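Input.
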Amino acid sequence: MEAIPFLLVAFLTLCLMPSGFALQCGTCGKGIPGMPKCDSGNVPKRTCPQHWDRCFTATVVYTNGSEKMEVIDRNCTSTYGCDPKSQYYICNYFKNNETTMASCKVDCCPTDMCNLDGPSTTLEPATTVPAISVGLAASFGAILLALVLTMLV
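Output.
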């Protein structure tokens, strides 16, 4: 019985602890003014904002008459940015009224700096499982706290 308060504190600490394990992605490009080039030896790391759980590489080809221009962007996104069915799909942001987008390919990956390694697999969009997990954990924590408090009274 003496272990229950310790376990409760440990559990609540883990649940309430802010995420210190943010994803880091390479941030570089080709054909984007002001962005570091990916072929340089010193590609900047970006710590991704909360809920941005994927690194991506987007390769876009634009045509303007007979001219072609390739743009490559590597950065952070959420799983929705990797989903062609999502309104947040990365290719939607590369549409330009002045030129025609001939092609757009997005590769996403879930580990630090993985967007600097060659091709990767496009991942499925996020589901509501993480939100459900947090809700269940919070409910379990509340039940455990109530149990401990009733034992102390």
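The first helix runs from residue 3 to 16.
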